[in-house]
Amino acid sequence: MDFEVKYLKSVDWLIILILVGFGIFSYLGISGASPHLSLEGKQVVWYIIGFVFLAFILLFDYNLIGNLSYVFYIIGLALLVGVLFTPPINNATSWYNLGFFSFQPAELMKIITIMTLAKYLSKRSEQEEPFSKIYELIPIFAIIGVPMLLILIQPDLGNAVVFTGILMSMMIVGGVKGKHFLLFGTLVASFFGLMIYLYQLKQEIFFKLIKPYQWNRIVYWLNPELDPVGQGFQLKQSLIAIGSGQLLGKGINAGTQAKFGWVPVGESDFIFTVIAEELGFLGGSLLIFLFFFLIYRMVRIALDAKDAYGSYLVSGVIGMFVFQIFENIGMTIQLMPITGITLPFISYGGSSLVTNFIIIGLVLNVGMRRKKLMFD
Question: Mean of the per-residue pLDDT values for the chain?
Answer without folding.
Answer: 85
